[in-house]
Design goal:
It contains 2 helices and 21 strands. The chain is about 5% helix and about 50% strand. The protein has one domain: Porin (Beta Barrel). A 16-stranded antiparallel barrel has the order 3-5-6-7-8-9-10-11-12-15-16-17-18-19-20-21. The chain starts with a helix and ends with a strand. It is mainly beta.
Length: about 400
Amino acid sequence: MKKILFIIFLVSGIISDAMAQIDPALLRRVPKDSARTQLNMDAVYSRPFLQVGKLPISLGGYVEANYQYLQENGVSEGHQFQMRRLTLFVASTIYKRIKFLSEIEFEDGTKEINIEFASVDIEIAPLLNLRGGIVMNPIGAFNQNHDGPKWEFIDRPISATQMLPATWSNVGFGIFGKKYMENWVYAYEAYLTNGFDDKIIDNSENKTFLPASKNNRDRFEESFNGIPLFTGKIAVKNKMIGELGLSYMGGVYNKFEDDGLTLDKKRRVTTFAVDFNTVLPQTGIQINGEWAWVKVDVPDTYTEQYGGRQQGGFVDFVKPVLKKPMFGFEKAVLNVAIRGEYVDWNRDAFKATGGRIADEIFSIVPAISWRPVAQTVIRLNYRYNWQKDLLGNPPSRLAGFQFGFSTYF
């Protein structure tokens, strides 16, 4: 870790010295494509980048940090300051229809360092483009469109981070494409990548937990069982109505064979998701929601706390209430927002009684956010969760305030 930090500081120093010697007139922001309708699948490139003169490399990133004071059942860890993440983007147009983009994220200081995206795109035709490398599996919308400055909420959605594995990426290859027809745009993505492992049912959470597979760093160099994970998505958007996305991700997660010896049957994990976003024309209210279903073939030897079926999602409502110059910022915006969340960790029933397993969490998060510019957000959230255990006992309650910022740079 000390070597990694040394390299980071060394590279940062070299870049800083180099930038200091560059004529500021050569620095320019690479404009985003605003002429066409953007989809969630475009989020990977729909970011502000800084380009130096005619160099083929563009740089960018974002940072987010916050303060929080939370209590769970009357017990608190006190006042906490958190450096959630620092993410760096490096992009290059190798040729006019060959692009490369990488996204490297440092979470909680340097507690976790992840390559979330590093792929080469080759454009053949609008409906046929090739992508290879470390790709972001397009399950739902948040997994692709997760940058902190785009959201009015400090915490990422529970369903997207604890039921689905947010920022879930793997090594693989695939195709994608889009077609424009007046006010409509149609798009698809399809990838074969390395996939999950048996940690989704053998983990410290003691429940079916798909994000546990993110800890397997070997997935970037080898498949756990030799069978690819398939992820596919179709999306349609109308400029006046909004965007609707349907996605699927499925594959075998267990090691069923070793050196020709059969260990178990092939056990599959399957996820479906639907996402929708729109802006109501009369009020300007932005609506963004996602719902997902997970099905896992859990061995009969596991106890009932490991659910074979899960479901959950979130919906955000964001209302701009004030758009005017504020404190010297000409296009500042003040928003009020609210998020509702729900996850059912176990949709199965007790075998002995037939009663419902009540392992679920509800959450509501009102928020106020101020955007001095579109790329920067300062946000105040109040989080209130209530969570029931397997037996449906009176819920555990968590509540408290969070305050922080997130900005592109």
